[in-house]
Amino acid sequence: MENTRDTIAAISTAVSESGIGIIRISGPCAIEAADLLFCSPGGKTRLKEVKSHTIHYGFICDPEGHVIDEVLVSVMHAPRTYTAENTVEINCHGGVLAMQKVLDAVLHCDRYQKTGKGQEAGERARKSDETVHVRAAAPGEFTKRAYLNGRIDLSRAEAVMDLIEAKNEFALRNSVSQVRGSLFRVIAELRGKILYQIAHIEASLDDPENLDFTPHLPEFREDLSAWRNTLKRLILTAEDGRLAAEGIRTVIVGKPNAGKSSFLNLLLGQERAIVTEIAGTTRDLLTETIHLQGMTLLVTDTAGIRDTDDTVEKIGVERARQSVEEADLLLWMVDSSVPLDENDRSIAALLSGRRSIILLNKTDLAEQTGVEDVRKMVRDNVVRSASAMKKSKDTEPESLTQIIPFSAKEGTGYDAFVRMLKDLFFHGKLSWNDEVVITNARHKLLLEQAEDSLERVSDSLDAGMSEDFFSIDLMSAYESLGAIIGEEVGEDLADEIFSRFCMGK
Amino acid sequence: MMSTAVLEEYVDVAVVGAGHAGCEAALACARLGLETVLFTMSVEAIAMMPCNPHIGGSSKGHLVREIDALGGEMARCIDHTFLQSRMLNRSKGPAVHSLRAQADKAAYSSRMRQTLEKQEHLQIRMQEVTEIITDEKNTLTAVKTVSGTVWHCKAAVLCTGTYLNARCIYGDVSVSTGPNATQAATHLTESLRQHGIEMYRFKTGTPARIDGKTIDYSKMTRQDGDVPVIPFSFETDPAEVQIDQVPVYITHTNEETHAILRDNLDRSPLFSGEIQGTGPRYCPSIEDKVVRFSQKTSHQVFVEPQGRETDEMYIDGMSSSMPEDVQVRMYRTVPGLEHARIVKMAYAIEYDCINALQLKDTFEFRAIEGLFSAGQFNGSSGYEEAAAQGLYAGVNAAMKILGRDPLKIDRSEGYIGVLVDDLITKENHEPYRMMTSRAEYRLLLRQDNADLRLLEKGYQTGLVSEERYQKFLKKREQIAEETARVKKITIGAGQEARQFLESVHSTPLTTSATLAELIRRPELNYRILARLDPDRPNLSEEVQDEVEIEIKYEGYIERQTKQVKQFRKTEHMKIPETIDYDLVPSLRNEARQKLKEIRPSSIGQASRIMGVNPADISVLLIYLKR
What we know:
The structure holds two protein chains of two kinds.
Chain A: E1 7-11, E2 21-26, H1 30-37, E3 38-39, E4 54-61, E5 67-76, E6 87-92, H2 95-107, H3 119-128, E7 134-136, H4 141-148, H5 157-178, H6 181-206, H7 217-239, E8 248-253, H8 260-270, E9 277-279, E10 286-292, E11 295-301, H9 311-325, E12 329-335, H10 342-350, E13 356-361, H11 371-384, H12 386-391, H13 397-400, E14 401-405, H14 414-426, H15 434-462, H16 467-484, H17 492-500
Parallel strand pairs in A: 1-7, 8-11, 8-12, 12-13, 13-14
Antiparallel strand pairs in A: 1-2, 2-6, 3-4, 4-5, 5-6, 9-10, 10-11
Helix pairs in contact in A: 4-5, 5-15, 6-16, 6-17, 7-15, 15-16
Chain B: E1 8-10, E2 13-16, H1 20-31, E3 36-40, E4 54-56, H2 60-69, H3 74-81, E5 82-88, E6 98-103, H4 105-118, E7 122-126, E8 129-134, E9 140-145, E10 150-152, E11 155-158, E12 167-170, E13 173-175, H5 188-194, E14 199-211, E15 221-223, E16 248-252, H6 255-263, H7 269-272, H8 286-292, E17 300-305, E18 312-319, H9 324-332, E19 342-344, E20 347-354, E21 371-373, H10 383-402, H11 415-425, H12 450-461, H13 466-488, E22 490-491, H14 495-503, E23 513-514, H15 515-519, H16 541-552, H17 554-571, H18 589-598, H19 603-607, H20 614-625
Parallel strand pairs in B: 1-10, 2-3, 2-11, 3-7, 11-21
Antiparallel strand pairs in B: 4-6, 5-6, 8-9, 9-10, 12-13, 12-20, 14-18, 14-19, 14-20, 15-16, 16-17, 17-18, 22-23
Helix pairs in contact in B: 1-10, 2-10, 2-12, 3-4, 6-9, 12-13, 13-16
């Protein structure tokens, strides 16, 4: 249950092309938190000492003192702020990834207290028994606070509630859909194992004359260290930007020379984009992360799909097909300067039932293939796999597949492409904005909470504490992981105990 | 037609049912000065233990201690009538130490009956209550008995246990009786339904009782009680409970037992569909265990005495509803039971109970003012769960009549709080049993500190005497003083300390340390350190235990205390009883329905309802602020 006394933070403006965005911190220790992270050029300005409603130039640094981003910080004391609470707004300049890093730093400001710079704040925090702590804002939470603190007109109450509901549903849908696939499986499996051990412990505490957990301790220790390694690995991937960059899984398909790489270059050149190149963990395909007007694309460029007998290439094709299976969006590059052939037909078949955009590239050259040719090929293939269509939620084939004449060379069709992307995924209503970043920051925090809980389990074991102490921390880890994949805890434990363990007396 | 004169009686409170819930409810009301009638189907069945012969155990022992701290009777009663006592989980942390006593069933019943009889303002009446009577505002005005007598009352507490439309079944035998062949109550359900109360049908079961003379104990493992015995009640003098204890015996089922059961599954009323009610998964019948845990080749069986005045032994772990021939053969496969003669057959029992989501957090029905309920009737299971609820409902009925604030216990204050909250907030599809894992703040909810947590509340309601309260205040002060003292006392790294620490295999000090720091070492404890602590005051065992726990587990306790602080914030945000959820805009449909059904009393409770998500809570907060 979210608490209205906490200090909260989030990226509060939609991430724009310019790469400038604002991180808002609101709550009782907003200013202290910002003070911990902020370094003025002369090193003298302390945000907690400055006047209300003033702006300061400086840097946000990590706990070791390395600069994360160059910023302007506004400090506003309660009550004359949007939320009527102490508020700090950090204007970042370094683009999306830097913003995420700054937000991350804010959410981990308690780490600063352990090091030199924050010592003083840490001392004071200890004295007052409240550490400086900031958590990720829930969707719509700033607005909610503004309302609860009487900053918004009462007559607007219903609108606010609608907003919160819409945002929440959106974020929830998002956060759950983001952790599909392998991450979902890893977390679900881990939770299953943790729950089994909790059930084992609780069943034995409940029925000590029948069940004893103690002989299983060595085995449990091994499990615990394996779980912690899994979590640490996941947290690391989040930190180097991969998890944080989870977005629309986009697969580019098309024959060789259709212009896939020039299209990618166009995206990179047009945008102040952040690109990370990583080798796919399960297949030798390159996945690039592209931030595009606030959206995140995870672009996989397939090696080119065509029928082949060559064994090595066959594996590559298989992998390409597999990544197509997991894709949120297919981008089919068609070379308009050559006629369509059998290879294109097999690619068209892949489109059935999927969201896809067809880019009819090289319109700057003499046309051999037109929009109608492509449409016909798609229609033929969609008819062929009509059953696949029925399974899809969007029943209109036209709503799933769009064709855009394009020239990577001249840049024509680019705006239409971005518009279509927004339409396809957000129906033009919601911009792909802060929620996604929050969701990711939230995921990482939850992973860290889970790992912290498991660390406490480990500490308890080392201190010779019995299982009734650490099973409570195991449950916390289970809950944190559940929050990532959107599952409520409910009666899980009781169900597990009764189904797995035969209770006696 | 002859005219019949309807007899009319006037009381403050009518308690329906004299099981463990009814006894506590009636005693609480009468002790608070209210004229109380306690109805029972049979005076011989007062405080009957129709199933297992023990009180306490994991988490249930906690409930008994809490009942005692609130001024209830169960703890005192068992302290005077137990046969054997053990503290379970002694090798684990103090939060899961659980006291469990084997009871002399007849002695327990008889002592409770005497307590009721001696109680001022309390009358026992052997009669079936058949109807509840309400006025036009749906406020309870009276209950009616089978003879037509109308008992006018200001409140009633329904504690009908397993008696409502009860049916006992084994094999083809199905009889409409209550537990232990008592008469079932067959009218009240209909009256409750007519008043719009939603009923469930639950099921439970009990094993056979076997003639002790026919048991060969030499083939079993003997289990003795603890020495010394620790009493349940904070008021019982420990010296009084050091009695000659009676042993329990342990044996096991085997493949042969299981084969007999498997071969006859089609004859079990559970599997044939003859039994419709929902049974508890935590207390499966032996045939259930064999089916659900088919990989287990043996199940543990406890052979337990039922009392000093009887040879009957209770076969714990082998409840069943199999036909007679299967039961006889199956029990005789168990080592030590080869020649066993059954005195009472094992049977399953089906009964009517309610969907407890219809209750407020005082256990008063939302739909009927003045009507309260407790115990198995509320969908729980177990003597201790019943007694705890009976006390809670009884006190709250009394508080209502007296125009005083209700007794409330939240999840961070007691297992009773967890029990009440779970019953009224969560959908419950089987008899609810207490477990320590249900208490999220269990490190604070220990059996040793039940008085520190709840005695104040007992005193406020008036069930705890001034004398007992003063004694308690003194104890609390001693704990605080001694805890503070051991944190201040420093032990030097000198010769004496070194020698002592080495003698107990603890690392010698290099610099001085506080006594508290030494207590926290796993190999040391408060008592052993008396050697280094010459100025230690003379304190009771209880106080010493408490000081040790508070020091040794300080880190864990602090963490939970912080969590409790968070929890209380939302728990204290109240939702007005009059709220109309149809007027709250933007609630999702599922949430709206759940909120309308459960009608939580606080934002905290609302957030624990399955199907109410954080967005709904935000919406609700904003609406309430408006």
